[in-house]
Specification:
116 residues, mainly alpha, two-stranded parallel sheet, 5 helices, 2 strands, elongated
Length: 116
């Protein structure tokens, strides 16, 4: 049975003391077979999936296949653009605050076509 999430602050601070202050780590905690864990030690499933696999597919969301295919096509077209073209759409060059991304296009070295 999987551990549940602990809510009382005293449990959380006791566990933090065991893990951090006493240096036992999360592995030491897991070996004790706890029945509850503080939320801070539980990684959300979506975050784990993206770190482990890099992507995941959501189903039954109501978005049509046509829209999904258009998004995939636009994504492929964008990432096939030369670096200079992509840089025009970077967060630094966007007038919008809604642009997200972590790639540093100034220092990233793109492979030449055919050298991938």
């Amino acid at each position: 049975m999987a551990p549940t999430v602990a809510t009382p602050m005293s449990e959380s601070s006791d566990i933090t003391d065991f893990i951090v202050t006493k240096g036992n780590g999360v592995k030491g905690l897991s070996e004790m077979g706890p029945k509850t864990l503080p939320r801070q030690y539980i990684q959300p499933l979506e975050e784990w999936i993206t770190e482990k696999w890099g992507f995941f597919q959501v189903i039954n969301h109501g978005v049509s296949i046509e829209v999904l295919e258009n998004v995939k096509d636009a994504t492929h077209k964008f990432f096939n653009l030369p670096a200079e073209e992509k840089r025009k759409f970077s967060k630094e060059n966007s007038p919008s605050n809604n642009v997200r991304g972590t790639m540093d296009t100034k220092s990233h070295h793109y492979p030449k076509p055919g050298n991938r």
